[in-house]
Design a protein that fits this description.
Pfam family, one: Myb_DNA-bind_3
Helix content: 40-55%
Keywords: DNA-binding
Strand order of the largest sheet: 1-2
Number of strands: 4
Organism: Thelephora terrestris
Protein name: Myb/SANT-like DNA-binding domain-containing protein
Order of helices and strands: HEEHHEEHH
Number of helices: 5
GO molecular function: DNA binding
Distance between the termini: 62 Å
């Protein structure tokens, strides 16, 4: 008799709720003093993974400590890009919709220079303020950086 093995999915799928839990846990850990200049202490990623495990559904790839760290790096990259866009001439921010705003001409010019930025024309970033709290003073976000 052979046991039927189903392969677990390899890639983690991150929902808006997962992102929220990740960021809220990091804010709690920051308040507890577990953030160093160089980044987060190892125990932090285990805490994030444990929080995410509470809401995980069957069949999902496990969000391990290392996958949580990787995903946070992606969120941080998105944040830095969005902050750069917000600081650009002609661009703004709709706080209600958590969306970068600009005239269509601005977006067209931007698309010529940086195609990956164009997704932020219609993609909200609801965790902007929380991410700002997490990376402020850690990541160089000024244009001179």
């Amino acid at each position: 008799p052979h046991a039927t093995h189903t392969m677990p999915p390899k890639r983690c799928r991150w929902s808006t709720q997962d992102d929220q839990i990740l960021v809220e846990t990091l804010l709690t850990q920051k308040a507890a003093g577990n953030q160093a200049q160089s980044g987060w202490k190892t125990i932090v990623w285990s805490a994030v993974a444990a929080e995410l495990k509470k809401v995980a559904t069957d069949g999902q790839a496990e969000k391990t400590a290392s996958k949580c760290n990787d995903h946070y790096c992606n969120l941080k990259s998105d944040f830095v890009l969005i902050k750069r866009l917000r600081d650009m001439s002609g661009f703004g921010w709709d706080d209600g919709r958590k969306l970068v705003t600009a005239a269509d001409e601005q977006w067209e010019e931007l698309a010529k220079a940086c195609l990956k930025s164009i997704k932020w024309k219609s993609t909200p970033f609801p965790l902007y303020d929380e991410m700002f709290s997490l990376v402020d003073g850690i990541v160089a976000t000024r244009s001179g950086a």
